[in-house]
User: Fold this.
Amino acid sequence: MTVLIDGKAFAKRLRDFISLQVADIKSSLGVVPGLATILVGEDPASEVYVRNKSKQTIETGMASFKHTLGSATSEAEVLKLIAQLNADDRVHGILVQLPLPRHINAEKVINAIEPAKDVDGFHVSNVGMLGTGQKAMLPCTPLGCIMMLRDHFGSLSGKNALVVGRSNIVGKPMAQLLLADDCTVTMAHRYTEDLEGHCRRADILVMAVGRPEMIPGDWIKPGATVIDVGINRVERDGTTKLVGDVDFKSASLVAGAITPVPGGVGPMTIACLLFNTLTAFCRAKS
Ligand code: GUN
Assistant:
């Protein structure tokens, strides 16, 4: 029997835990953790993401500081806002929604965030600290994936893990987290030879590519655990449907456990952002 890893339910448990912690902090210290979001421009998908992040921040009892800037905003203006938020004691986490308009250098903007407030874990200091085993802010999507894997397995020690996709946001930090949990990690990408062979050897398969249903069930090792980060919109039978990077129907016949799309990794990402904001608050106070 294949286990369905229910990210939606896991995310709810995590948010409930955060809400309790925030209520405790509020009653004992009289303050709450705060998350500032910065959205530049009018990308509709980004607007939805930022709205959801802000809504869930408020639902857990934390403070949300939403900054929505026009698409003509200069890089200097964004950097000035970040400097203000870095210095603001009410703000414990700062998130700059990506992608930024082309005239703004995203690396420069992200690296202007105070690393302790970098709740996305994208600052070069946090990336370096993760790579060297120091206490870093961890990127939200890989953090959600490793939480679900630890919950499912207990120990990940000695497992063969394959990460497909090498983005800075998901693939690379995911590989680092699996390595830190003592997996034997392989990273695959568009130039990898014999992807099928690598898949067949993987006890843990993490897909983070963004190509609808690219992995068929018969590439998966029987009993493997599949974490599907892909969220792809496809037109099927006249309607729009969300599918992962794995062909769920055939994969779920072979895998030991699998995350569905939607309802798997997706809900964990925002829950982990809230978790990181709480963590940033606690580290600032300790
Ligand atoms: N755009 C797509 N994913 C992300 C994310 O995890 N964080 C931010 N800031 N922007 C994104």
